[in-house]
Amino acid sequence: MQPQLLDGRYQIERLLGDGGMARVYLGRDLRLNRPVAIKIPHPHLMTDPDFLARFRHEAHAAAMVSHPNLVDVYDVGQDGDQHYIVMEYVAGSTLKQLINREAPFAIPRAVRIGEQIARGLHAAHRAGLIHRDIKPQNIIVTDDGQVRITDFGVAKSHLSTAMTETGITLGTVDYIAPEQAQGRPATPQSDIYALGVVLYEMLTGRLPFTGDTPVAVAMKHISEPPPPPRRYNPHIPAALEAIILRALAKDPALRQRSALELAEELRSYEQLVTQATVVNPGVEPPAQGRPAAPPRPAQVTASRPAAIPSPRPTTARAPRQEGLGCGVFLVGMLTLAGVLAVVFVVSSGMLNNLFGNPSRPPTTQLPNGQSTEVAPSPTVVATVTVPELVGRSDGEARSLLQQNKLVPMPSSEHNRTVPQGIVITQAIPPGTIVEENSPVSYTVSLGPLLVEVPNVTGTRQDIARNQLAAAGLVVNVVEEPSQRVDEGFVIRQSPSATLRIPQGDTVTIYVSLGDVVRFPEVIGRSRAEAEAILANTPGLTLVFVDVQGRDRLPNFDRYAPNEVVSAARVVGNNEVIGINNGDYIPRGSSIVLGVRAEE
């Protein structure tokens, strides 16, 4: 239960949200009489000195940044063992709520929202603060369209030395930058990438990458190009699509150099569209690649009489011929003779002797007057057989190819099952006959890809699973009671954080069931045994034994006399809830046993 008043100043009114590290409450600053948002870490994190140091440090770093598109931090304090951050309360909807209701957005609206996010990020980046978890859930949009970035809870300042600087320990997989998914440190370009995903989602109503598991989504961020947003929304102009795809470049160096540059690109685009609308409202621009029609000449409205066109000249006809005449007969005969002459020249081969015929082989004159054609000598091409390379070492493969007068073309990739330096595949199957000096491509194993185990101790189970899956690790969950860690949060992990293990290995997380006690195996035992077991079980108290006769116990004869047939725990207003052997129930529960009566 949270205290209702912090430091005699901040009145807590109601819960606004529950995150992986803290809860956020709506409160009131009694001194200044204004609403505020109060962030309080989860109780089990209050005893973690590393977390508290980071909590205070990042709060102070965020408080140093003031910008119209960032939620202001007013105060950082401690009341007894209760740490808290007091922030500006912004009334509005999250961008995610708006996307779910209204996407795809109109293009001017999405551009304006994106520009405001970019300007807020630029202010944070100038102060050395990287958000690392930009997503629509952390963007608040007021009713008048103002955008505010909130929740710098996973942010990293350039002064911080927290363990979460390396590895994929924080953030959301749907918006994660490729370098973060690969375990490299986040940079301002990582926030730009996440904003590119947000722009994509606003304009298409969908994410660029989806998958059945978080690791599938993370791998797509790393290796697959995003589908062009115009595939899903053809109304997106090509220039705006280019801005978004640049922000989504896999290589951070190919993205916008800063969030300010992205903001200016969006501003320039919006101004260009606005100017085009003002200059020629309601008129569509000519289609790209089609020349515009030339302007029509102005019509003459003066009273000058129009010129009368001159009459068209008539074409003189030749006098009509009544007969063919001898002239026509002579022309026909000459034409026929010319055609016959051309046929004779072509068929006799005279043109071949004149111009040469490269396609016809030379002839040799024999003594008897006959001739024979001399066939050209064929070109001899040296060939070799491609050897088997798979399973050999890279050095052996190179030597073997060179001995066979072939050119080695190696490449490499990580592989969990094939040892480092061994050939996995080859492009040309063994036994294939190819020309000498042909290139032969093959792939050499780099061994398993090693990744750093994220530190998920103290985080909520769903967040821990996402972070481990994003690192390419398999998650095994073991639930157990804990008196010091809240229900649903990770108590410990194995292997421990910062170790480098092969991608695809299993990490076990032990998740708290809360302060509960496992009900012992007493149902089915005798009353005496059950009472003894409960007496030695800390956290449980036997308060009543309900002896049930034949009139109250169904199947009475199935049980032995004094056998425990049921169990329950007492809740408010003396009501009881049935329990079974092995159930986890709250510590301090009062237990009622049902026992078969003797006859």
Task: Report on the architecture of this protein.
- The chain is of the alpha+beta class and 599 residues long.
- The protein is built from 13 helices and 29 strands.
- It has five domains: 84 residues, Phosphorylase Kinase, domain 1; 182 residues, Orthogonal Bundle (Transferase(Phosphotransferase), domain 1); 63 residues, Trypsin Inhibitor V, Chain A; 65 residues, Trypsin Inhibitor V, Chain A, CATH 3.30.10.20; 80 residues, Trypsin Inhibitor V, Chain A (2-Layer Sandwich).
- The protein has a six-stranded antiparallel β-sheet with strand order 1-2-3-4-6-5, covered by helices on one side. Strands 25-29-26-27 form a four-stranded mixed β-sheet, covered by helices on one side.
- α7 packs antiparallel against α8.
- The longest helix has 24 residues.
- It is extended and about 135 Å long.
Structural domain count: 5
Shape by Cα distribution: extended
| Alpha-carbon Rg, integer | 42 Å
The CATH homology group name of the largest domain: Transferase(Phosphotransferase) domain 1
**Number of discrete helical segments:** 13
Structural class: alpha+beta
- Classified by CATH, the class of the largest domain is Mainly Alpha
Spans where pLDDT lies below 50 across 5 or more residues: 157-171, 277-326, 353-360
The N- and C-terminal alpha carbons lie at a distance of 50 Å
CATH fold description of the largest domain: Transferase(Phosphotransferase), domain 1
Q: Helical content, roughly?
A: 25-40%
Tally the beta strands.
29
**What is the subunit organization of this protein?**
single chain
> What's the CATH architecture name of the largest domain?
Orthogonal Bundle
pLDDT averaged residue by residue: 81
Instruction: Please describe the biggest sheet, giving its number of strands, its sense, and whether it closes into a barrel.
Output: 6 strands, antiparallel
Strand order of the largest sheet: 1-2-3-4-6-5
Task: Give the percentage of residues in beta strands.
Answer: 15-25%
